[in-house]
Amino acid sequence: MRVLFIYSSWNAPLAYSEGVGLLSARLKRAGHETKLLYIHEGMYPLHLEGIKREAEEYRPGLIAFSTGTNQYPIVTQISRFLRPHLSIPFIVGGVHSTLCPEEVIKETSIDILCLGEGEEAIVELTERLESGEDITRIRNLWVKRDGQVFKNPPRPYQNLDHNPFADRKVFAFQKLIDLKNGWVDMMAGRGCPYLCTFCFNESYRKIYRSSLGADTGGYIRFGKPSLVIQEMKEILASYQCIKTFSFNDDTFTMSKRWLTEFCSLYKEEIKVPFVINSHLNNVEEDALDVLKD
Prior knowledge:
Layout (H helix, E strand, L loop, with lengths): L1 E7 L9 H12 L3 E7 L8 H11 L3 E5 L5 H11 L7 E4 L1 H5 L1 H6 L5 E3 L4 H13 L9 E5 L2 E4 L21 H7 L3 E4 L2 E2 L10 H12 L8 E2 L2 H14 L5 E4 L8 H14 L4 E2 L9 H8 L1
Parallel strand pairs: 1-2, 1-3, 3-4, 4-5, 8-11, 11-12
Antiparallel strand pairs: 5-6, 6-7, 9-10
């Protein structure tokens, strides 16, 4: 099946989406085709007729939107315009659909939403659509069917080492690197233990706790350092003019053991400057020594 992703950061900073990259990679590994329209002033314009033409020419079996709250109005603008012209399912995933599912599922132009992590769910959805099977019982998905909403619980947290490397080709990634002055966005892990009121992490964990009946653990995860390094080496071999790797993990220094192993490999094999996020509670002197070295 062909899946058309539509991802927007209109009137916002240029941004690579690790979520879209991973979903595309999982679909390709399962034998499906993907295409992305990245709606941004420097990439693909917010031109509704042009988006419709692209969709009609590509002939997807599914259109997948990924969005945060600030870009959700763009999603509804595009989906409402496309709806009369395409009789295929539209799915919305990302932070907004996870935290505001009732709002999203009420949108008449949207058929399905993804709650939480969607790597396995989107592959199951495309395969069931392709074979004509029922899609109303897929975990992580809310599905509208004949006036009824089927609300399925999420599956346990994804083991990051089970994912293929993110699909950056779908982003026209060299153009993205050039527009970002040589910066490459990465993620080595997921999750944060803190309760900052401005952030989605605690609300996200509560959804999993309430849906699965317990705190399943494993929310804060990192990929194997060797696999993260291998992915970076593949990026360096595939693209030019890379000046900096920027890790978008919330708390990169959460595990001293992981950090030490990763930085040792990084120093030997990558040798490109990098940027991280962390929290003052996790930036002790020995962690700084490792990062400095």
